[in-house]
Specification:
Mean pLDDT: 95
CATH superfamily of the largest domain: Dihydrofolate Reductase, subunit A
Number of strands: 14
Helix content: 10-25%
Shape: globular
Structural class: alpha/beta
Bound molecules: NADP nicotinamide-adenine-dinucleotide phosphate
Strand order of the largest sheet: 9-8-7-6-10-4-11-14-13
Order of helices and strands: HEEEHEEHEHEEEHEHEEEE
Strand content: 25-35%
CATH topology of the largest domain: Dihydrofolate Reductase, subunit A
């Protein structure tokens, strides 16, 4: 008997809420049989899984079982662009890849974006395409130039918290109660990603998704503050526009990073799971 994807997703969500600091494995019964998740991010099942369920476990067990983790995501075209020149990016990816993005949000404690993305996309950053909890929403905005309106600042209903990370001199507009202003010191290159992560850790936020854009993710990679990167590659050639990554110039290819990666098919798109902590042997 095979199992349905929803049972596997529920198991991943339940695993996410366990304390994995001292735990090495956890077992869950599904209608089809037992699945065991390991602290190493691997899994085992005593029954046959279909491809969709295997992809879910292979790509997301490392997140669901991590005590601490920083993962980035970029939805990009075949030519490595994440938006047009004017900043239009809705949507590069199709529904299955977007569902994957919402699963990433549901598995983390906080989702981080840069000021340009907050201004260009006015995102909600909530979990809507799958079941699961909403993360704390974090906007990195040293000059407090993101207007205090739109979905992130909307106080209707019971909005998930927003952490607005601003510089020492910034004068933000007044905001509703679910928005906390967090002032951090800025260095020559803005906030150090390590300082942002330390401030999140102080608030009990240990599993972090850096959702974009390019500059924010590039700064995390450059500071070696990203553990994994999920690239969602769509069959699309934009040919111009914003590159997904923008790192300092290197002269020779032997200076390039060569991380380990695995790839998965997502309904005609490609998910590339890049493990930035492990180099190719
Ligand atoms: N396809 C996708 O997956 C995806 C995902 C997200 C966004 N996008 C697109 O990407 C575009 C925006 O990306 P982007 O690269 O231009 O900008 P971004 O990364 O969204 O925002 C960059 C800005 O955020 C602030 N910032 C980020 N990290 C900082 C740090 N460590 N210290 C200080 N400030 C920091 C800075 O603001 P200041 O300039 O005020 O200093 C910086 O200029 C939009 O068009 C959006 O639609 C695409």
């Amino acid at each position: 008997m095979t199992t349905d994807t929803e049972s596997i997703w529920r198991a991943l969500l339940d695993a996410r809420s366990l304390d994995w600091i001292d735990r090495s494995s956890w077992c869950r019964s599904t209608p089809a049989g037992r699945v065991t998740l390991f602290g190493s991010g691997t899994w085992q099942a005593d029954f046959t899984l279909d491809e969709e369920a295997r992809t879910l476990l292979d790509s997301l067990a490392p997140l669901a079982t991590a005590a601490r983790l920083v993962v980035g995501q970029l939805g990009q075209s075949l030519d490595g662009r994440i938006a047009t020149e004017s900043g239009h990016s809705h949507y590069i990816n199709g529904p299955v890849a977007l569902k994957h993005l919402h699963r990433l949000r549901a598995l983390v404690d906080a989702v981080v974006i840069g000021a340009n993305t907050a201004c260009a996309d006015c995102p909600q950053l909530t979990v809507r395409r799958v079941t699961g909890p909403n993360p704390v929403r974090v906007v990195i905005d040293p000059r407090a130039r993101v207007p205090a309106r739109g979905p992130l600042f909307d106080a209707d209903g019971d909005p998930p918290p927003v952490l607005h990370v601003i510089g020492p001199e910034a004068s933000p507009e007044p905001a509703p109660g679910h928005v906390e202003r967090l002032r951090l010191a800025t260095g020559e290159r803005g906030f150090s990603p390590a300082a942002v992560l330390a401030a999140l850790k102080e608030r009990g936020l240990h599993r972090i998704l850096v959702e974009g854009g390019a500059e924010t993710i590039s700064r995390f990679i450059h500071a070696e503050a990203l553990d994994r990167l999920h690239l969602l590659i769509a069959p699309l050639i934009i040919g111009s526009g914003r590159n997904g990554l923008d790192l300092p110039v290197i002269e020779r290819l032997d200076e390039a990073r060569r991380p380990r990666m695995r790839s998965f098919s997502l309904d005609g798109e490609l998910l590339v799971d890049v493990d930035l902590r492990l180099s190719q042997g």
